[in-house]
Amino acid sequence: MNIRELTTDREFLAAFDVMHELRDDLGQDDYMAFLGEMRSRGYRLIAAEEGGRIVALAGIEKSVNFYYRRYMWVYDLVTSASVRSKGYGLALLQHVERLAREEGCETLALSSGLQRTDAHRFYLDKVGMEKRSFTFAKTLT
Fold it and tell me: Is residue 101 one of the residues assigned to a domain?
């Protein structure tokens, strides 16, 4: 397995199918447009590859606030359904944790949908994270 940061449009396009498994309401054009905006503020896309094929992704951004101090936020974490439960997600998060530590972060954080109970067990049992809060949102149309 190879884990690396994606940096080119060609690499981002190659990652779309895996990202689409998580963000299935997102078309390729919007994906590329949003990615450009997000990257301008510091968003990075880290890929786990096996045999030259992207099998898992983590979308991350370093930031700072009063409650986490300096932290790494994981916006997107997805392993392709065809290779789940083979250690790619854990390896990817361990890599992101190392990056966060190297970059002076005090916390690694993410938000996960209420329905994703398998993911919650993974974060708690395998990754060693803890539940700290609820996230609330209101759609503005």
Answer: yes
